[in-house]
Amino acid sequence: MNHAFKNRSEILFLYDCKWANPNGDPLDENKPRIDEETERCIVTDVRLKRTTRDEWQSWGEVLWVSGENVNPKERRKELGIERKEDALKLLDVRLFGAVIPMKDRADTSYTGPVQFRFGSSLHSVKVVYQQGTAAFTTRDAQQRSFREEYLVPYALICFYGIANENMAKITGASEEDMKKLLKGMWLGTKNLITRSKMEHNPRLLLRIVYKENGNWHIGELDSYLKLVTEVDEKSIRDVSQVSLDVTELLKILDQHRDRIEGIELKEDGRLKLLHNKERIELAHKLQQMGFRVEVLDLP
Description:
This protein has 299 residues and is α+β, with helices and mostly antiparallel strands. It is 22% helix and 35% strand. It has seven helices and 18 strands.
């Protein structure tokens, strides 16, 4: 049996998309979710978890939330879950938590050790409305109907999350589970090959692992990132038109280096990273600063 992970960690995950709907709102004509104040695109944590779960399922992993329409009672029977604790054999329950409805039991939930805030684009985006001809006619009609859709031409989206070692003691989430999480996020995003999600590309994955027994983390790491571009933010159409300034992020990491055990990361070569206005390769820069760095073996 794997042991629960003992180190708190923070996660930054950046990906971009082109001419896609990153996370439609079914209560608003399935339009992309937009922060009306900042005009930035929003993606819920539920969407990221669905992407990750889909990737896990492609590996043959059995999960509590399968994505199928099934009631909890049927799901418990299908998975042989007779006690709440039986659900901890499932990867998504150990990492994300779950509600496991049980008859005559008030305590039916697990809080997941891994929690993500809503993701947000690092820039304002433009929402484009498009119409097209549908494939079939409606009943009794001679002419094919029209379909309508809303797309975002480009968005560089950032997720921030925390892996809490205190909750891991309860669910049993292990370091091996965390490896599966990072791999599932990266590959799951790459494998989102649907009509509305075509060309989702993972760009940067960073996990800051803190020393044991610290019960502490820096927090809001995404606030230390700055997007740099020479064009109007809504006119961005490709990752080649942006750079990510990580100067402040490296500064805050350096300030707390004594609390940091190591840093795991995966970089995509197309996203330019800047430190004091100079382009850097992040793993190399962190190693120069004296951090123990593990480059994740992800395609």
